[in-house]
Design goal:
Helix content: over 70%
Low-confidence stretches: none
Mean pLDDT: 94
Order of helices and strands: HHH
Largest sheet: none
Distance between the termini: 36 Å
Radius of gyration: 18 Å
Shape: elongated
C-alpha cells in the first residue's frame, strides 16, 4: 500500500504543477530544469547525510557489543 500511495502522491503533485486546469485552480507554475536540479540536489545531500548518520550509529552500536 505504501508504494501505491507514494506513486499516487507524486502523480498528484506533478498534476497540480503541470496540468493547466489545476495550475489555474491552485495557482501553481511549472518548475523549470534549474528548479528540478535544485530540488534533487537538496534531496541527494539530505539522503547522503541521513545514510552517513545511520552508518555511524550502527558502527558505534556494534562496537559496544
Amino acid at each position: 500500500w505504501l508504494n501505491g500511495a507514494s506513486i499516487f502522491v507524486i502523480l498528484a503533485f506533478l498534476a497540480t504543477i503541470y496540468l493547466p486546469v489545476l495550475q489555474t485552480l491552485i495557482k501553481t507554475v511549472p518548475i523549470d530544469l534549474k528548479g528540478w536540479l535544485i530540488i534533487f540536489s537538496v534531496i541527494a545531500v539530505n539522503l547522503f547525510l541521513v545514510e552517513i548518520t545511520k552508518y555511524i550509529f550502527i558502527i558505534k552500536k556494534n562496537k559496544k557489543k
